[in-house]
Specification:
3-stranded antiparallel β-sheet; two-stranded antiparallel ribbon; 5 strands; 2% strand
Length: 574
């Protein structure tokens, strides 16, 4: 691409001769031109301008940016095309990134009169086009009552290089700062919030729609002009009339389609809205629990603290690795029964607190999901005792229960656990089960993170450390995308251990520190102890390693504690 805004250069190249680059810019903007005309325009005082042109073309030949014989044309895009598209579509965020300065700003070269006039007129034309784009957005803001935002956009435009000078030469009309009537503004929000369907759901005043077309707030297809600075799908920054319209639309739509609009109008809910929208929010939060527990938690905020809401909130916190918060929320709710026991048992185990086993029998009397949780917890307890065959069988049974309950996330977790148990047992089935887990994970980041992490462990133990590192990185990215502290911490811990084994102590320490911070933030004590043990070993610090082993024992993670106790022997004097 040829960059012409804020300078003049070929992207990715060091070539800096002004006249040849200016020739490319001229042809890219003005289109095909006769060779002789170009020679006379660019070298008007030369004895043989055609020769000068030939020299410039030879300098440009390695870049293949100009074609033709008698008539020449540029075959390279410039930054002006995406700028024009962004301005036409009102995407000022893109305009800001593209308009890096005035056209050919800072380009110093002796130019003939005609070429110099072309540079200045083009510079002014582009600056005016940018100003008009800002002014159109400012007018939209004024029209919809966002006076301060409109004024800020105009001030921003005047501060752009080249704009103020262009306005001194040309004087386009300033946008009217007066807002439209309230009824017209509400008609705009109906079209903006429910594109293509607003007129079907609401009875809108034809005169209001005519005014919106006149103001260019609706285009020829009935699409509302997007407004700079507003976040789609939220009430952030929206005026009260927009929230009123959102709520009116939501009340007239089927429940699932109404949910985003209910969320925008949430501050205005009546008791009836609270009940109807609450059902939709709860259903959506339950659906989002597997793929995006952070969003699930957000959806639950503000809902009445009914048992199903409190239980789902605890599960969302658990999925995010925020175990202590989840346990506190569960205990504060006073919830009892099989479902609560299933969640409580998992949390107690994760936090290394006593009482996890006592929850199993009650959970086994509950739904398929609660039974799956109980079986999975039994598997974790068996694994911690080193009973890998028994653990693998329990995880397999848990996966079946989760499948029956349509709990995909927990099914994937159980398959992951089964694969790890099989691997510890030395079974060749482990990799096939991990493949099954990855397939079931689909494109859900949190589920991918856990499956990729375990596959990385398999690759590392097979001696394929480069593949393992890549899988750990992929797991980390997926965990960060999901916002899951525990999964992110485990990925950093595995990376640290890999770096340590490969003789990269500084990289290992940095990774361990990140893992430790995440484990502590999530109060994931088993992971905290494991990372502390790894750090102690890295620093050759037997006292810290003994303390980490004690923490693992307290967390009842005997297998890992025994593994590190064996390594502790390396520190003993012989």
């Amino acid at each position: 691409m040829l960059r012409t805004l804020g300078g003049l250069h070929l992207e990715g190249e060091t070539f800096s001769r002004i006249k040849p680059l200016l020739l490319v810019a001229y042809l890219a903007i003005e289109g095909s031109q006769p060779r002789r005309r170009l020679a006379e325009m660019f070298w008007p005082e030369a004895q043989d301008p055609l020769n000068n042109l030939s020299v410039a073309l030879s300098q440009l030949r390695p870049f293949r940016v100009i074609e033709g014989e008698e008539a020449l044309r540029a075959v390279i895009p410039t930054d002006l095309e995406p700028l024009h598209r962004a301005l036409c579509e009102g995407r000022l965020s893109e305009v800001r990134g593209l308009y890096r300065g005035a056209f050919l700003e800072g380009v110093e070269a002796p130019l003939g009169e005609e070429l110099e006039e072309w540079v200045w007129s083009t510079r002014e034309r582009i600056a005016l086009e940018v100003y008009r784009g800002y002014a159109a957005q400012a007018r939209a803001c004024f029209a919809l009552g966002f006076t301060e935002r409109g004024q800020a956009l105009l001030s921003e435009a005047l501060g752009l290089n080249g704009v103020r000078h262009a306005l001194e030469v040309h004087t386009p009309p300033s946008p009217c700062p007066e807002p439209l009537p309230r009824e017209v503004r509400k008609a705009y929000w109906a079209y903006a919030l429910l594109p293509g369907r607003a007129a079907e759901v609401l009875s809108l005043n034809p005169e209001a729609l005519e005014r919106l077309y006149e103001e260019r707030l609706l285009d020829g297809t009935g699409q509302a002009r997007p407004l700079e600075g507003l976040t789609p799908g939220t009430s952030v920054g929206l005026p009260i009339e927009a929230q009123e319209v959102a709520l009116t639309l939501a009340r007239r739509l089927p429940l699932r389609g109404a949910l985003p609009l209910y969320q925008i109008g949430r501050a205005l809910w009546s008791a009836e809205d609270q009940e109807r929208a609450g059902q939709a929010l709860l259903a959506e939060a339950r659906r989002m629990l597997s793929e995006n527990p952070a969003e699930s938690l957000r959806l639950l905020q503000g809902l009445a603290l009914e048992p199903q809401v409190q239980l789902l909130r605890a599960r969302a916190l658990e999925r995010l690795g925020r175990y202590q918060e989840a346990l506190e929320a569960l205990e504060e709710s006073g919830l009892q029964g099989a479902e609560a026991a299933a969640v409580r048992g998992n949390l107690l185990f994760r936090l290394g607190q006593p009482g996890a086993e006592a929850q199993i029998q009650e959970a086994l009397q509950g739904s398929s999901w609660a039974q799956g949780e109980a079986l999975n917890l039994q598997g974790l307890l068996a694994f911690s005792r080193g009973e890998f065959g028994s653990a693998a069988d329990l995880f397999a049974r848990a996966a079946v229960r989760f499948l029956a309950a349509a709990e995909t996330a927990r099914q994937v977790d159980a398959l992951n656990n089964r694969a790890v148990a099989l691997f510890e047992q030395g079974s060749p089935e482990a990799e096939a089960v991990l493949g099954e887990a990855l397939k079931a994970a689909g494109d859900v980041p949190l589920l991918q993170a856990r499956a990729l992490l375990n596959l990385g462990v398999v690759r590392e133990r097979q001696g394929r450390s480069e593949e393992a590192q890549q899988l750990y990185r992929q797991s980390l990215e997926a965990a960060q995308k999901a916002g899951a502290l525990e999964a992110e911490g485990r990925a950093w811990n595995n990376l640290g251990a890999l770096f340590h084994r490969r003789g990269k102590p500084e990289e290992a320490e940095a990774a361990y520190r990140k893992a430790l911070a995440l484990a502590r933030e999530g109060r994931e004590w088993m992971l905290t102890a494991a990372v502390l043990a790894n750090l102690a070993e890295l620093r050759s610090d037997p006292a810290s390693l003994e303390e980490a082993i004690a923490l693992l024992q307290e967390a009842r993670y005997a297998v890992l504690a025994e593994r590190y106790r064996g390594r502790l022997e390396a520190f003993r004097p012989r």
